Predict the 3D structure of the following.
Amino acid sequence: MDQSKEQRILNSVSYNAIKGDPESVLACIDKYCSQNEWAMNVGDEKGLILDKIVKEADPTVALELGTYCGYSAVRIARLLKPNARLFSIEFNAEFVPIAKEIIEIAGLQDKVTILEGHAQDIIPRLKTQYNMDTLDFVFLDHWKDRYAPDTILLEECGLLRKGSILLADNIIFPGAPDFLKHVRNNIHYECTHYPSHLEYMKAPDAMEKAVYLG
Ligand SMILES: O=C(NC/C=C/[C@H]1O[C@@H](n2cnc3cncnc32)[C@H](O)[C@@H]1O)c1cc([N+](=O)[O-])cc(O)c1O
Ligand SMILES: [Mg+2]
């Protein structure tokens, strides 16, 4: 059976990136996905916004919803301080090994744990099974109609603390209206909007930061 697009992205990274160099892994994926095959990585332009917010959060424990090929996991993990960790949830069994391999090529396997399954099933187990207290940073980039319910689940599971930073991709396209409705005009969140463009395209997109106020 011929290879998937995600497998072809891994092939390109495996062949072209410098082992142990996250920047070269990111550059390789961005080059491949802008020149050969579009893919739904957060990309280089919105990636700079992600970098800024991760640096601001300086998280010890970070969570990502929707690993896909691991591009944003590499982007986040490369900025983490020595004892900090990223947990990334992905339910597509085909994507998990590809993301693991890409994260390993970047040399970041010790900082990133991929949790295979649905976010709605894993989130309630994070405290007990992964000995988590609260989350310092959450990147939402999975199915857009899951942003709101999974944010509510994070709240209900006591995984957010005063100052926890949520960052959501694709606020314009494909859009996450229910998430915006939940966090904006909500006394428990302080929101900031970051206009940008869809990865590798000219179409408008945006990210939304929502700081949990407790
Ligand atoms: O649809 C988009 N993203 C959905 C991302 C989905 C990824 O998260 C996983 N997932 C989903 N629910 C999950 C629940 N639990 C775990 N993994 C889950 C899916 O297996 C996939 O790997 C998207 C689309 C465009 N676009 O231009 O069309 C642009 C973007 O930047 C996007 O992020
Ligand atoms: Mg996205």
Summary: The two ends are 51 Å apart (CA to CA). The chain has ten helices and seven strands. Residues 40, 66, 68, 89-92, 95, 118-119, 141-143, 146, 169-170, 173-174, 198-199 surround 610 (ligand 1) (CB under 6 Å). The beta strands are 61-65, 85-90, 112-116, 135-140, 160-168, 189-197, 204-212.
